[in-house]
Amino acid sequence: MQNGYYQAVGGMVTQFNRLDTISNNLANANTVGFKRDDVVIGDFLSYLKEKRDELPIEDNTKDAAKFINRSLDRVPHIVRNYIDFSNGPVKRTGNALDVALKRGDRFFLVKTPNGLKLTQNGAFSLNEKGELVTKEGYKLAGESFFKNHQPITLPQGKSINISSNGTIYVDGEQINKLYIAKYNNNLSNLKKDGDNLYNITNINDISKSDDGDYLEQGYLQMSNINPVKEMVALIETNRLVEMYQKVMTSQMNDLNSDAINKLANTKA
Fold first, then answer.
1. pTM value?
2. Mean pLDDT per 10-residue interval, the chain, length 268 residues
3. Cα angle at 259 between 255 and 263, to 5 degrees?
4. Which of 174, 198, 12 is nearest to 106 (CA)?
5. What is the β-pairing status of strands 167-170 and 192-193?
6. d(CA 153, CA 6)
7. How far apart are CA 197 and CA 181, in angstroms?
8. Per-domain residue ranges for the chain?
């Protein structure tokens, strides 16, 4: 296979993957608490240099040479996927159980059938048992969750107030307090589980935040997607795919045809 053709194919596949990311962002433009995904595109050589130290062999050996194909060095490659945790716009709802997080590095802790997860979606409600849950029915953890493992239960039909540090008052009486979690490692290590949940690989990676101004009751933080920027990126990606397609056509048709004709006219 011609080197140029392979590089064009690699570039096209990379743009297809980027297109999937942009499309998912646009699909979640109105999803409460959604954080946009993005990718970093580099070339294979830069990716190899980052990973070379992890190879269990020495450089400049025959074994090391098997890992390097100079024709692939400049193939575009997604070197990193990441989540943009910047805050989205805040929308007033007036619902006492809607709570907006003011900081992108703070999370609610929820209990799911697959274990504890983090979320920034503050659209809550009460189930038939009076337990505070997410729209998916996952139970919210209170500050004493790791001691008693009990969900937050509130009486229905009462006046509910949630302070900026997560303390929950019912008719002026303190009932419980939301567990406001902070992630102790780099946020880039967090991985999504669906659109609004984040996996916790190690429970020691999270801890309870100190009292602070973290919440705003009666508001929701919307997604941080900018539809205009995403549409521009979508158009750019489509144009790059078309460009790579033209390169592939030139490589396989025009250049090969020219080479064959010249070889056919070559005199012995």
1. 0.78
2. 69 88 94 91 60 52 51 68 91 94 92 94 93 94 90 87 94 92 88 90 90 92 94 92 82 67 62
3. 175
4. 198
5. unpaired
6. 59
7. 13
8. 3-84+226-264, 90-221
